Amino acid sequence: MPYPQFNRDDVCMKPLSSRINKSEIEKIYVPVTQEPPEELMAHDSVKKAVERIVTARENERSVMMTFGAHTIKNGMGPVLIKLMEDGWVTHLATNGAGIIHDWEFSFQGQSSEDVESYVKQGQFGNWQETGFNINLALNIGAYEGKGYGESVGAFIQNEKLTIPETAQLEEEVAKEIKSNPSQAASAAELLSIIKHFDLPSGEMKVSHPWKKFCVQAAAYRLGIPSTGHPMFGHDIIYNHPMNNGTSIGRVAERDFLSFAESVSHLDGGVYLSIGSAVMSPMVFEKSLSICQNVAIQKGERIDNHFILVVDLAKSHWDWSKGEPPIDNPDYYLRYNKSFNRMGGEMRYLTADNRDFLLAISHSLQKYKK
User: Fold this and answer.
1) pTM
2) For 161, phi and psi rounded to 5 degrees?
3) Domain that holds residue 245
4) How far is residue 250's CA from residue 80's CA, in Å, rounded to a whole number?
5) Is residue 60 part of a domain?
6) Which of 173, 280, 325, 333 has the fewest Cβ atoms nearer than 10 Å?
7) Quick one: pLDDT at residue 270?
């Protein structure tokens, strides 16, 4: 017998406009002209990363940048956008929270609720516009064959979603069920969502007045993969009844495979992991494993990659010596241990993500074509 389930339809979702936020994007964003600390500009790991990025792009190899939500919450959108526009970064990846904050800043210019206060009120994460809009973008994106980040990025950039007519979806289910059952299932799932929420067909326009700060929208505009790597139940969009596990699975799987495709071109490339101690190493090690497997079958290898991990925690271990013994506390710095096992050259830098990204961006300016 199936376990009993909680009914999300009973949750009271309040307007996002009623929420008190800690951050306003126009007050906290970091301009690309802001000077980074001189000592970081002179740091050997920063210099090495810049050299490897330039060489990688000259040879058309991947330069992947993964980051946690705090990179967005710290207002680093303009710097990331600049790196994409100048052609230095070929792939961006973040977790579910990074995508949510990026969307909220684009939509209302504010983000970051007081978790402790709203938990006490039974209101944490229960916001109508965030849950409804992001989930609907993912639901429609899943049907359209988009990935997680692409679905939300397209929604923000185009400022609209197109909801198919139910008759069209019913016809598609019947037509594709034998020849293309996966697409038939996707159409049927979206049909169920549209009927459950009684959504009118046609264009649903949603203004995003602050989209100039949005990393996902810029990536979509520039045609650069920006992938989302969620963990089910980790983000506030799972509170909303518009959330659909089938859609999440489809868009997240696409983004995992898009991520792996970029990893497959990483030999001679660069992988930057910035403040994403959970998502980044876990997704990377599985992606590298399958890419290495296929490369070896072709008589090739992915060995000449440069990994720079950046976070605030201090590490007292020289990772060039391999991983520390199990009784050393640094053994439990999972992101370092995982990346150290992934071949290539790996370095760890203790730095604030704002300072590091500015240092990378400014250092690359002298190489700009």
Assistant:
1) 0.96
2) -125, 145
3) 8-129+210-365
4) 27
5) yes
6) 325
7) 98
